[in-house]
Amino acid sequence: MKTDKLKKIDIRYFLFPFFALTLVFLTLIYFVASNRIKERYDDFEREAIGMADVYSNSLVSSHEAYEIISDLLNEKLMIASQAIMLIEDNKDSEALSNLAERFQIDEIHLYNKDGVIVYSKGNKYVGWEAYEGHPVYDFMISNQELLVEEIRRDTESHVYYKYAYVKNEDGTFVQIGVLADNIQRFLGRFDLQVLINGLSQKDDLIHVSFINNEYEIIASSNTHYIGRMISDESERLRIANDHLHTLRRELDSQDVFQVCVPVFYGNKRFGTLSVAYSTDRTDNEIRNIIFEGIIQFHIVFLVLGSILFYAYRKNKSNIRIAYYDKLTGLPNNEYLQEYLQDKINNIGNKNMAIFLLSCTNFRTLNMTYGFIYGNEILKQITKEVQNIIKSSDKLFRFGADRLVIVVNNYIDRNDLKELASNIIDAFKEPFVGNREHQYVNAKISIVEMNKKNVTVDTLLQDATLALTHVNKSLYENICFFEEVMEDIVIRQDRIEKKLWNIIKDENDDSLYLHFQPKWDVKRGKITGFEALARLSLEGLGNVSPIEFIEIAEKRLIIYELGRKILLKACEFIKKINSSNSQNISVSVNISGLQLLRDEFIEDLTDIVKTLGIDSKLLEFEITESVLLDNFDLINKKLEEIKKMDISISLDDFGTGFSSFSRLRDLNIDIVKIDKYFIDKIDHGNEDDMICADIISISHKLGLTVVAEGVEEAHQMKYLEANGCDIIQGYYISKPICQADAVRFLNA
């Protein structure tokens, strides 16, 4: 386990998903772009093929139109020839000119049966005779009655004409002709080359050509290709195929998409149309698609990078917030829990321990100088402790004024004590504040992690428990946890729970009172009892009042417990005085926490009125320590109690801070001399005995004097001789139960 959670956040954990996601998106973008490119190429190919197919159909349609018009023209020539032959008025030049104009023909020649022109339009060729080998001669000697020739050059004028012939029964015949130029003007728009030139004007068409079945280019948008033979065998095979085919190739140093469409007229194939399209527009679109993909990739890259970088920073920030103290920068309690659990799981044979360092006066420092000042001091403390511990040890902030140190691989307890002593020594020097130098008190508890199946909670619990025993430790401000401490806590917990049950359950008799008689020296009889609380627990037996009263005070239930004791004492007052006319008083110990409660006087009044007892028979005993921190407030409360005719006794006088001058100001009626001074009454030197002086001065102050802890006859004799008012102790009687107290009183 890494000891630093911030370092544990390896950026590689973020880079891996970053690159993985980037690769996923890159692949996705690649496939999307590839599909778009393929779709664009497919669309381009479909468009090119579709257009080429349309163009080939146009060629076929034009060829069909050409053939039809040619047939119509031939038919027109034959009809015109026949018509002229039948017209009687055709024997002179003028008549023939009129007929030529009427039938829109350029030449009319009438031949006799010997092939001599006897009449001619314009009389240009009258007398010309057809000779052997001439087309006119061939028709003359043939058996044909009608003939339409292809366009040929006239042998005399050398001008191209298309001629038609009609023969009479007598062997004479007529020849009419139309200039080839006129025919071409009429049929030119259906010419293959013209059509090819027209197609080449379409957008994106680079080259259009028509290839005949002999692989010769007979028409082309680039005239220098006309007449060229296709020699490449693979290209010939493609052209010879009766199916459309496509090819991307280079033509005239330019990338083109070529579509070759076989052209059929009827069932006869008369050639192949080759159409080459420019790929520039498509290539530009492809480049745009690729560019868009690159842009999208960069956007995704930046967005993913930003998101993951933000997540990385945010995670570090969250880790810092969750596992580190904002003020000191130290790992916090959450981190400590996980760290210790990991150490417990992997402890093996290693020696490990935890220190719980508590700054005991830090709360007072904050209240005196403010939290900002306290925070500055705490940061200095943190820095000082970090300088002392080893790099293998780890420091945590555990609370407002507490630090935890996890010590790894120590040798023995002396090693731990030395480290703890070094830390305590650092607190012997003042820390520099922004106002003045400040001393901070510190104590350390140490728990060795050598128990099996230990939990983190148990470790910290043991450390906290050991901290409460620091003052009882052999070492200055340092305490090692011992198993017996845990037993003490368990015992205290049982006692506390029992006290709560007693407070809530009126029928719980685990708490009861014993009563120790008080002997009035002057009257020579018992005039009162001191009520002493007793507690008995199953499994623990009788519990010392010192122990359970201290627990009640620490757990802040002393007021409720004290009220229960006061109620029992008042019930005893009522019981004992209902059968006795001697006005027997009962004294009850009252803690300072009870006196400081606002509702104490009200509760006291309620108990007295409810039970109907005489308040003069009730006496409260307080110790000097009660007055230590709240003298004026306590003294004022005592004044209110005295107004209720309840006597006030100062217990354990002489062992605390009180002086005789202070007694004059204190609202009390009785002084109880502590057993410590009673034990001094011996057969020895009377100079050591100051009880007589206490009695004398107390009397001068108008106070009644009670001597407690009297156990010997000579002590009794001494006290009687020196005017002590009341004697209490084993010499008179030990504390006894309620029934025995009644019997003792009546004895």
- What is the count of structural domains? 4
How helix-rich are the residues, as a percent range? Answer: 40-55%
Question: Mind telling me which CATH architecture of the largest domain this is?
Answer: Alpha-Beta Barrel
Structural class call reads alpha+beta
Number of helices: 24
Mean pLDDT, to the nearest integer, reads: 83
Q: In whole angstroms, how far apart are the ends? A: 78 Å
Write the layout of secondary structure elements.
Layout (H helix, E strand, L loop, with lengths): L4 H4 L3 H75 L6 H11 L3 E5 L5 E4 L14 H7 L4 E3 L3 E2 L6 E8 L5 E7 H8 L4 H8 L5 E7 L5 E4 L12 H8 L4 E7 L2 E12 L2 E11 L1 H44 L9 H13 L6 E8 L2 H8 L1 H18 L5 E4 L4 E7 L4 H14 L4 E2 L4 E2 L3 E7 L7 H12 L10 E3 L2 H22 L6 E10 L4 E13 L3 E3 L1 H10 L3 H21 L6 E5 L2 H5 L3 H12 L6 E6 L7 H12 L4 E7 L6 H4 L6 E4 L1 H4 L12 H10 L3 E5 L4 H9 L4 E3 L9 H9 L1
Parallel strand pairs: 17-18, 20-22, 22-23, 23-24, 24-25, 25-26, 26-27
Antiparallel strand pairs: 1-2, 1-6, 3-5, 4-5, 5-6, 7-8, 7-11, 9-10, 10-11, 12-14, 12-17, 13-14, 15-16, 19-20, 19-27, 20-21
Walk me through this protein's architecture.
The protein is 47% helix and 21% strand. The protein is of the alpha+beta class and 747 residues long. The protein is rod-shaped, with a radius of gyration of 66 Å. The model has no long low-confidence stretch (mean pLDDT 83). It has four domains: 87-187, Beta-Lactamase (2-Layer Sandwich); 189-281, PAS domain (Beta-Lactamase), CATH 3.30.450.20; 333-481, Alpha-Beta Plaits; 492-746, Alpha-Beta Barrel (TIM Barrel), CATH 3.20.20. β7 (205-211) and β8 (217-220) form a beta hairpin. Strands 19-20-22-23-24-25-26-27 form an eight-stranded mixed barrel, surrounded by five helices. Strands 1, 2, 3, 4, 5 and 6 form a six-stranded antiparallel β-sheet that branches. The protein has a five-stranded antiparallel β-sheet with strand order 8-7-11-10-9. The chain has 24 helices and 27 strands.
